Amino acid sequence: MQFIRATTNVVLSNSSFLKLNLVKTIWTSKPSYLKEVREIEKGSELIVQGVNYPSPRENYLLKNTNASVCPICSSGLDIKHTDVLILSQFVRSDGCVLPRRITGLCRRQQKRVSSLVAMAQKAGLMSNLTPANSKKDPKKRRGWKKYNKYFDESTIKLK
Amino acid sequence: MSALKRVQQWATFARIWHIYDATWQNPFESAALLKKYLMGLHKPIYHPLADCGDHVVVINCSEIALPGDEWKKRVYFHHTGYPGGASWTLAWELHKKNPTLILKKAIYHNMRGNLQRRYTMERLHLFPNESVPDEVMKNISNQIRQIRPVPKRLDHYTEDEVKEFPKLIDYPKDYIIR
């Protein structure tokens, strides 16, 4: 199954040139679970269809009790760097923190979350969410980095 | 002396063997805790001359955790006594050479430097991993609670646990998950 960003139906003739062009112009690199692309072949025509896909988080979403503040502020949680099940929600599969326009956090919490993610990564607690070329096992790191370490959340400087 | 009192007397002066798992524990916080058991400070009959200390077996010494960048900032000093004989060893280098030495030094330096200290240290048994000889293991009758909770890595959770954990945010509608 291929996934793609296109939303509208694209109807193409079945020539190889057009197919190649399609691959270049429309991004097909990584799977998206929010958009799915279906390819249907009808005789000489190839129909590429982009359909919305339900979010995998939909059923497990915590209800925001106070809509005027950001999700973390309204939840009232004191998140530590060892809470990897929470922190991994704000991280892409390569370990990058999602930007504020995606997370919808306030300035303060966004900075705190990005610091906590950095701490969790250094402590080797989210080693499966790292770039593809990195060593996944924290024990295989070089020098002092391979040993267990923990962090104090009060060292995060926030305004 | 009744039988009950006699047994109570034996139990009071018996040496108890404790076990402590050093996984993800700060050695310097642990030292202050283990010292009490080694010296017998936790007993109501404690007296410096009473010799009422217990044995402590520490396992997984190689899995200790230090805060922040202390692995490369903490330095152990040694001097051979000859001119130019000073050497400085970083904590991670010392740990690489001997994974039990940081904890041993931490406990040694946590106690006051008197004649009893060397004898108290004799009752401390450090092991780099979980493999403890049977003749040591058969004595153990108590476990000392860890100070810090051991963190769990994200890849050690099952896929369902990660998926079904309550989510704080949802992706925007047009977001391509990567």
Automatic annotation (TrEMBL), chain A:
Compartments where located: Mitochondrion
Protein name in UniProt: Large ribosomal subunit protein mL66
Keyword Transport: no
Top-level taxon: Eukaryota
Family: Belongs to the bacterial ribosomal protein bS18 family. Mitochondrion-specific ribosomal protein mL66 subfamily.
Gene Ontology CC terms: mitochondrial inner membrane; mitochondrial small ribosomal subunit
PANTHER family documented for this protein: 30S RIBOSOMAL PROTEIN S18, LARGE RIBOSOMAL SUBUNIT PROTEIN ML66
GO biological process: mitochondrial translation
Provenance organism: Agrilus planipennis
Keyword entries, A-Z: Mitochondrion, Ribonucleoprotein, Ribosomal protein, Transit peptide
Chief location: mitochondrion
TrEMBL record, chain B:
GO molecular-function terms, A-Z: mRNA binding; structural constituent of ribosome
One biological process term in Gene Ontology: translation
Entries under InterPro entries matching the protein: Ribosomal_uL13, Ribosomal_uL13_bac-type, Ribosomal_uL13_sf
Gene3D superfamilies according to UniProt: Ribosomal protein L13
Domain of life: Eukaryota
HAMAP family documented for this protein: Ribosomal_uL13 (MF_01366)
Protein name: 39S ribosomal protein L13, mitochondrial
Organism placement in taxonomy: Eukaryota, Metazoa, Ecdysozoa, Arthropoda, Hexapoda
